[in-house]
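Regression test case RT-17, inverse folding.

Input:
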């Protein structure tokens, strides 16, 4: 296996350095009864065989030519400039992690900052966030913002909002105590009116009137918009909407059978502190160099836990990058031409179709943009005949912003004309639905785009170039073959609403993946729907909640250890549960006595990570499972640390009823600078009836990960504090508390590692360890890399003792030095309170 780097000699030397004779000594915390010897998986294939098999599956799908795809419904096959894939395919972008260390992540941070600005310009809103999973979750998150901001519990859905968005809104609303109703007449109980412009049928709605109606009773107006349409239609900011949301798939992303896509959300400055997810702000270092940082993080789950604005910790950075490249390539003129061409062709087609006997527009009195519903005498035979004809119906320096590089009067990209006789939107639509002022979008040529984003990519650390010892994040090497397989046209070109007989390859692939995951974690079924780890947590809790309700059992509490990831309590709160914390014992593992005192008939589930976030296996897991099940509660497994024992033991055999997995951690899919992720959830038989619909009807990796962690832990002994006894599993937690007399903190150690060309470990988590430094080396890092990392740590600690002032000044060889994150937050507050015109969270042209 070419991705496992330790040779037999390396393993022998590492075991000797640790002071044990075999791997069994490092796995002693796992009870023998839980050890497995055969996963019953199919024989592993070489890369050549794997790619051949994947190509066969792709060939079993039918991809309709772009020009012959008429099926929309929120997902569209539009022209995608080649530059988009060229930029997103840069390993510095797609293998990078969430930009928690800004000095080593300026490329990703600037790209997201540009995305935020582009979306804010397009929607004419004050601020946009760093992106969300998709359009549906954007609608749900916006509704929860309205619920908190107004203190009201009713969400009014006006008109024909995408039916899947409505389903997601209903599901989210249950946990937040919101009532979703249909209608367009708000009352004093209404938190917000949600409407779609154009609506799901492609018809224009009275967005201005709905907004005024919402404001007349003190409610918010949430506009779900088509981003391409905003090149010609009035944007939400022009008619006074409070929040703008939507699906960004049209902005440079393939249909890919439904995802990953990208959601966007923008709002007025009065609502900024209610925004979910990440926000990027501009900042400066001590030398005055501009940089970008994650900001206003006190809203997020890793700090606020169950009190966070949302449980999400993933934004779809890579998809947002694609959207930013697309909008920069097209510019305002290019996007306007796309919208106008779509409008003209749709109207020309409508005229020709309604000339056929028995064919007529479903709503002839309504204006439409680029989609329209039509009544057909015999629709199914028509669609079958269309399908037979191949037609589917239904050097490191800082980099200027793309806005600053854009040249006035730059030519728009060359796009084909509409080629039909039809009026332009300005000639056919009422003036009040058209955009009054064009969005201030940049326009760069392809060479300028490639150089701009290429320079930004060089500002990132990435797993393709550096060691990423991020605890609890499993930053292992991402095989290049993964990206090649995912990009095959037989997968990337599939529309999510294609008929099943045309997507048999994709369905078989998902079925095979489900079977493999079931075997690996010891469950009966798996849903592949969750878009990230936190999404998987929430999905599992909602299934557990539905299970208890089906038995007439109303349980209101979820138990969460004090060492748990912040998403655990946030997901429980989002599901409507009260979060009860369970303390850790002195050994760093869950206290059975404290657990027993908090178990009751009110408890729906215990959420547990094993090994826990301290890298320690819960030795008494079988006792924990028995205690939980004895009260009728269920045991949920957070799969963030599954890499520790994959192929050695299985969560299902430990008594876990629901298991979530992070494919972007354990199974080598890339992190993309913060997303997209994937968080499948596996369940035992009792929970199968509650799986989301639809469903599709032994490795050395973990051993090497455990070996690497224990080897590195041994090297750190005596250098940093080790608060818990070993051995550890796949990661360990050290502490910089021993450096406090020199005034050195964990953050200083992290910045010192950046200066020495290593990405910093996770710092200040878990919260139960002061000055925590969580290290996870993974199985794809060589012994030589681990030795070099240990040497760098020793050098940093020596510097802390002899010259701490120099350490406080690091890093100084990166594009920017330490950025003034506190100052950034203060500048944002000044903007939000009207004391400054600088929005900080986006670029804004200075008007002269």
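Golden output:
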């Amino acid at each position: 296996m070419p991705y496992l780097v330790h040779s037999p000699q390396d393993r022998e030397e590492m075991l000797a350095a640790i002071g044990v004779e075999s791997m069994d000594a490092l796995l002693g915390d796992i009870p023998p009864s839980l050890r497995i010897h055969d996963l019953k998986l199919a024989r592993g294939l070489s890369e050549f065989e794997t790619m051949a098999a994947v190509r066969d599956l792709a060939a079993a799908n039918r991809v309709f030519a772009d020009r012959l795809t008429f099926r929309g419904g929120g997902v569209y096959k539009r022209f995608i400039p080649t530059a988009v894939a060229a930029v997103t395919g840069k390993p510095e972008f797609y293998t990078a992690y969430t930009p928690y260390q800004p000095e080593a992540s300026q490329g990703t941070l600037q790209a997201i900052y540009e995305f935020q600005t582009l979306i804010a310009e397009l929607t004419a809103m004050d601020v946009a966030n760093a992106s969300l999973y998709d359009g549906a979750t954007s609608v749900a998150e916006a509704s929860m913002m309205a619920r908190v901001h107004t203190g009201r519990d009713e969400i009014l859905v006006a008109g024909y909002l995408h039916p899947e968005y409505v389903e997601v809104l209903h599901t989210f609303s249950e946990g937040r105590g919101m009532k979703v109703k249909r209608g367009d007449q708000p009352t004093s109980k209404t938190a917000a009116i949600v409407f779609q412009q154009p609506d799901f049928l492609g018809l224009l709605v009275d967005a201005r009137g709905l907004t005024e109606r919402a404001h007349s009773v003190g409610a918010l107006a949430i506009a779900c918009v088509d981003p391409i349409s905003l090149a010609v239609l009035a944007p939400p900011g022009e008619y006074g909407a409070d929040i703008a949301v939507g699906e960004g798939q049209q902005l440079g992303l393939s249909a890919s059978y439904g995802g990953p896509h990208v959601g966007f959300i923008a709002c007025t400055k009065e609502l900024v502190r209610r925004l979910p997810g990440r926000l990027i702000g501009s900042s400066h270092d001590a030398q005055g160099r501009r940089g970008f940082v994650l900001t206003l993080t006190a809203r997020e789950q890793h700090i606020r836990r169950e009190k966070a604005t949302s449980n999400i910790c993933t934004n779809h950075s890579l998809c947002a990058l694609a959207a930013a490249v697309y909008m920069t390539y097209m510019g305002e003129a290019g996007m306007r031409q796309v919208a106008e061409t779509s409008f003209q062709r749709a109207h020309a087609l409508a005229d020709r179709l309604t000339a056929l006997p028995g064919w007529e527009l479903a709503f002839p009195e309504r204006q439409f943009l680029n989609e329209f519903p039509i009544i057909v005498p015999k629709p199914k035979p028509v669609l079958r005949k269309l399908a037979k004809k191949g037609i589917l119906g239904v050097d490191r320096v800082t980099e200027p912003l793309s806005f600053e590089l854009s040249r006035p009067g730059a030519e728009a990209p060359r796009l084909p004309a509409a080629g039909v006789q039809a009026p332009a939107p300005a000639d056919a639509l009422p003036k009040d639905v058209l955009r009054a002022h064009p969005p201030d979008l940049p326009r760069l040529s392809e060479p300028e785009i490639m150089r701009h984003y290429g320079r930004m990519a060089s500002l990132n650390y990435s797993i393709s170039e550096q060691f990423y010892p991020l605890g609890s994040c499993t930053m292992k090497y991402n095989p290049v073959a993964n990206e090649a397989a995912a990009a095959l046209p037989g997968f990337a070109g599939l529309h999510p609403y294609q008929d099943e007989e045309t997507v048999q390859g994709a369905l078989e692939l998902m079925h095979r993946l489900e079977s493999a995951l079931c075997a690996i974690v010891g469950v009966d079924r798996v849903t592949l729907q969750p878009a990230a780890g936190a999404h998987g947590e929430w999905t599992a809790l909602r299934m557990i909640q539905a299970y208890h309700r089906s038995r007439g059992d109303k349980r209101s509490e979820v138990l969460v250890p004090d060492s748990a990831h912040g998403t655990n309590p946030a997901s429980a709160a989002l599901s409507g549960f009260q979060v009860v914390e369970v303390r850790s014992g002195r050994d760093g593992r869950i206290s059975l006595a404290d657990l027993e005192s908090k178990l009751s008939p009110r408890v729906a589930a215990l959420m547990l990570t094993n090994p826990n976030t301290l890298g320690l296996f819960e030795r008494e897991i079988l006792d924990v499972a028995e205690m939980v099940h004895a009260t009728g509660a269920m045991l949920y497994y957070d799969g963030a640390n599954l890499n520790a024992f994959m192929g050695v033991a299985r969560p299902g055999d430990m008594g876990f009823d629901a298991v979530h997995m992070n494919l972007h951690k354990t199974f080598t899919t890339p992190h993309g600078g913060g997303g997209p992720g994937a968080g499948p959830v596996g369940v035992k038989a009792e929970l199968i009836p509650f799986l989301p619909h639809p469903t599709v009807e032994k490795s050395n990796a973990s051993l090497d990960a455990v070996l690497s962690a224990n080897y590195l832990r041994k090297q750190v002994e005596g250098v940093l504090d080790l608060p818990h006894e070993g051995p550890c599993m796949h990661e360990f937690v050290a502490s910089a508390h021993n450096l406090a007399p020199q005034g050195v903190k964990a953050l200083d150690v992290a910045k010192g590692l950046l200066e020495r060309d290593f990405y910093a470990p996770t710092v200040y988590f878990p919260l139960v360890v002061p000055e925590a430094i969580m290290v996870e080396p993974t199985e794809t890092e060589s012994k030589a890399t681990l030795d070099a990392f240990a040497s760098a740590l020793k050098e940093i600690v020596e510097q802390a003792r002899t010259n701490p002032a120099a350490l406080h000044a690091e890093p100084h060889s990166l594009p920017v030095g330490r950025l003034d994150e506190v100052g950034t937050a203060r500048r944002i507050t000044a903007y939000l309170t009207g004391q400054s015109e600088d929005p900080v969270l986006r670029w804004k042209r200075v008007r002269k």
